[in-house]
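[job 4471] stage=fold_predict status=RUNNING
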Amino acid sequence: MKIRLRFVLLLAGLSVGGAGAQEAVVEELEAGRAVAKPMTETVDRDFVVHGGDLKLRNAVAGLAVDTKKALGLEVPEGEGWKHVIAIQFREQPAGDRRPRSLIPSFHLVPEGFRLQLDVYNLDRGLDHEALERAVLELLLYERCLRGRDPQGFEEELKLPWWLREGLLESFRWRKKEGDRELYEALFKSQAGASVERILDGQQVEEMGAGERAIYRASAGTLVMALLRQEGGREGMASLLGEAAVFKGEQEALLKQHFPGMNIGAKSLQKWWALQLADLSKLSVTETMDALASEEALEKALVIRFEGGERGVLEFRPELYRDLLAIPAEQRLLLLKPVSDRLNLMAFTTFPGYRPILFGYLTILSDLAEEKDAEIDSRVASLAERRAEMVELGKRVRDLLEWYRINTAEGLSGEFGDYLELKQQLEAERSENRGPVADYLRQVQKIYGE
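[job 4471] inference complete, writing structure tokens
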């Protein structure tokens, strides 16, 4: 029989992840011998961390508190906290070389439910992303178990993959840590973008890293689309109270908790696509890198003219002088959209490209006024400056890649998956149909038949 005695050392108020914590020692009497077992408990007593050293326990307690705060910012807390979450660091038996693992679980105890996270193989380092995911899973279990009678409770708790990963993505976006480039690539290619597949979420653990990244971004888009609906946060709060025990189709779960939305296979796909389009845009405080700016500029500078029997004519900068042969009224109609695009690009383009944009804008202004002021030589000079910027962008990219490789702590084996993902996305958008066709294709996918 074990008799547990606990007393708190005078470390209350220790800063942990923006919240207070208090350090305690648990003494267990085993065969008449006292064994000290240190633990860290957050001040609000939502989390208690056992094992490891003080620094590790404080870091883990801080991450747990931050995850709980992030969930509360996305989804209202609702009814008060009911169950403490225990995090236990455990040692592997000697010679056991299984990979590190985090095992969340819940148990029936006389006073209700005990939520626990067992962490193994700390000698290989602590995966912060995996720990955040495991803590979130237990937080969602806790919400589901509130108000439930532990007597006779035999339900299996299992969270839908899209919900857990989608919430994690929404946390990142709120902290401005979301990978916008991934969302932009997903928007352009719409690879694996069926909402039906997102809700299904089967075989996720068997996917490669690149494919998981696509599905994680897709799930995040879906969760953020739901949260941004009128009453979306309240609907998500009620959904979290049932998601881990719900046995039916996920679409039925959404209809039950978001009755104000017209949720069906097609309409949900439209909500998702519109949200993805929004997430893929640059904000007013973001700028493109040099290579992305060059790609955007090349597309923006193309002028298309309906040439009657000759079909659609394309004028790139090296052919701009030929626009003087077009009647003034038509020429102005062709030039204005390009000028508007360049002025809009000035907010998000790489700073080194802004003088280049100004150079093209002055050329367009001269063309509008029928001035032939050495246009060909000015265009050639701008082309040289663009080539220099591209070369600079490539060197910066290569330097960053070199730094990442040389500062990496180990090999994950996931590079091949990401390379395959990149090739897949590029293959699906390799056909160059022009900006108008690209826009129409995206509209068709959003408002398809």
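[job 4471] summary: The beta strands are 3-8, 14-16, 19-30, 33-42, 47-50, 85-90, 101-109, 112-120, 303-306, 312-315.
[job 4471] exit 0
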